[in-house]
Design a protein that fits this description.
Elements (H helix, E strand, L loop, with lengths): L1 H23 L1 E6 L3 E3 L4 E10 L16 E2 L5 E6 L2 E11 L4 E5 L13 E6 L25 H21 L16 H13 L5 H20 L8 H7 L7 H19 L6 H26 L6
Parallel strand pairs: 2-8
Antiparallel strand pairs: 1-3, 3-6, 4-6, 5-6, 7-8
Helix pairs in contact: 3-4, 3-7, 4-6, 4-7, 6-7
Length: 300
C-alpha cells in the first residue's frame, strides 16, 4: 500500500508542475480600437511572460499584413518573482479599407495569442454639405508701421490716372474679338494630353487629373462637382452612360487620387497610368452617351 501511495504522490506532483509551467507561460494581444478610419492611428499591445528557467525566444513582429507601423516600438522587460515579462506597444495605421485580422503570434507550438479583427472604413459624409478642399499654409507677413503712407501714395496715383483718363477725349474702339466657345470634351482631352507630357510629383499629377474630370462633368452635365466629395460625385455619376465595370473603375481611380493627395500615398507608375487611362476613357464614354441622346438615330 505504501508503494502505491508513493507512486500516486509522484504522479500528482509531476502533473501539478507541468500544469504550473504551462500556466505561467503566456502571450496576450489587445488593441484600443476595433474600427478605425483610413489613416487613423491604432494601438496594439503585445505582452509575453514566462519563467526565467525556461529558454523561450519570442521575436516581436516588424511588419503586419494590411497595416503600417508608424514608429519603432520599444520593448519593456521586467524580472519579478521568477518571471520574465515582455511588453511592446505598436502604433499602427492602414490605408486598405475592409475587414482585416491581426494574426496570431506564437510563443511556443502550444502557446499563441488570439487573432484580432479590425474594420478599416471611410469617414461618413453628408451629401447636403459643401466640400472644402485642404488648402496650403499661407505665410502672414508683419504689417509695417508706415504701411498707411503707401496707401496714401497709391490713392493719389490712382486719382491722377483717373483724372487723366476722363479728361482725355478719346474715342473708344469696340473690340472686334468674339467670344470663342470651347468644347468641354476637346478642352479635357487637350489638358489630359498636356498633363501626360509633364513630369511632376504624383500629388500634383493626381490633383490636376481629378480637376480636369470635375471641370468636364460640370460643364458637360451641369453636375456641381467642384466643391463636392469624391463619394458625392460618384453617386451623381450613376446613369450617365457608364457601364457598371467602367463605373467601378472610375470610382476606384478617383479614390486613389484622394489617397495620393490627402493621405500621402505613393502610387506606382502602373497605378498612375491606370488611373489616367480610366478617367480618360470615362470622359469618352460620357461624351458618346451625350451624343447619342442628341442624335439617337445617327450614332451607332
Amino acid at each position: 500500500m505504501k508503494r502505491v501511495r508513493y507512486i500516486f504522490l509522484i504522479v500528482l506532483w509531476c502533473y501539478s508542475q507541468t500544469g504550473y509551467a504551462q500556466q505561467e507561460a503566456n502571450i496576450n494581444t489587445e488593441i484600443d480600437k476595433s474600427k478605425i478610419l483610413i489613416g487613423e492611428p491604432l494601438k496594439l499591445t503585445i505582452a509575453v511572460s514566462y519563467p526565467e528557467k525556461n529558454t523561450f525566444v519570442f521575436a516581436f513582429p516588424d511588419s503586419i499584413p494590411h497595416f503600417e507601423i508608424l514608429e519603432k516600438p520599444i520593448v519593456d522587460t521586467i524580472h519579478e518573482n521568477g518571471l520574465i515579462s515582455l511588453k511592446s506597444i505598436y502604433r499602427l495605421t492602414s490605408f486598405d479599407s475592409g475587414h482585416w485580422v491581426i494574426p496570431s503570434f506564437k510563443l511556443t507550438r502550444e502557446i499563441s495569442s488570439d487573432t484580432i479583427p479590425v474594420d478599416i472604413v471611410f469617414s461618413d459624409f453628408d451629401p447636403s454639405q459643401d466640400y472644402h478642399d485642404i488648402k496650403d499654409i499661407l505665410d502672414v507677413k508683419p504689417v509695417s508701421k508706415k504701411k498707411w503712407l503707401w496707401y496714401i501714395i497709391a490713392g493719389l496715383l490712382v486719382a491722377a490716372l483717373l483724372a487723366y483718363y476722363f479728361l482725355r477725349t478719346r474715342k473708344i474702339v469696340p473690340s472686334s474679338k468674339e467670344n470663342v466657345v470651347v468644347n468641354p470634351y476637346e478642352e479635357a482631352m487637350k489638358k489630359l494630353e498636356q498633363l501626360r507630357q509633364v513630369s511632376a510629383p504624383a500629388k500634383t499629377v493626381h490633383s490636376k487629373l481629378t480637376d480636369i474630370f470635375r471641370m468636364y462633368i460640370f460643364r458637360k452635365k451641369g453636375i456641381h462637382s467642384l466643391q463636392k466629395t469624391t463619394d458625392d460625385i460618384v453617386l451623381q455619376l450613376k446613369g450617365q452612360g457608364l457601364k457598371q465595370e467602367q463605373f467601378e473603375k472610375l470610382s476606384q481611380a478617383l479614390r486613389l487620387s484622394d489617397f495620393v493627395k490627402f493621405a500621402k500615398y505613393n502610387p506606382s507608375k502602373e497605378d498612375n497610368d491606370l488611373c489616367f487611362d480610366t478617367i480618360k476613357n470615362a470622359i469618352k464614354m460620357i461624351e458618346q452617351s451625350s451624343i447619342k441622346e442628341i442624335l439617337p438615330n445617327k450614332v451607332d
